[in-house]
Amino acid sequence: MKEMMSVILEGSLDGEMEEELGYSKYDFRNKETDNSRNGYNTKTMHTSYGDMELDVPRDRSGDFEPKIVKKYQNTISQDMEEKIISMYAKGMTTGDIESHMQEFMALIFRTVP
Fold it and tell me: Looking at the 3D structure of the chain, how many domains does it have?
């Protein structure tokens, strides 16, 4: 369960970074910003399934502030865990769940100034 959750959350964080920068990971032709990806920081998250390591993307300017897993957050809410497990139990693949979360975060980015 921890592995599934980390794959989904890391993919969603990568999607957030893509939204923030405005271009996908290897799509330099569409880059319209001076900011770029700058690797990952490892973060330990406490879940009801035990501790798990997450690779959180970072940017060169240090402006990226993830919404799914905030900078100083070290626990995953029970509600988020249940939503992810519920989607998985309904037959969604980890890729489907990751995509769904990325689309949701894109909506949040568009509505928050």
Answer: 1
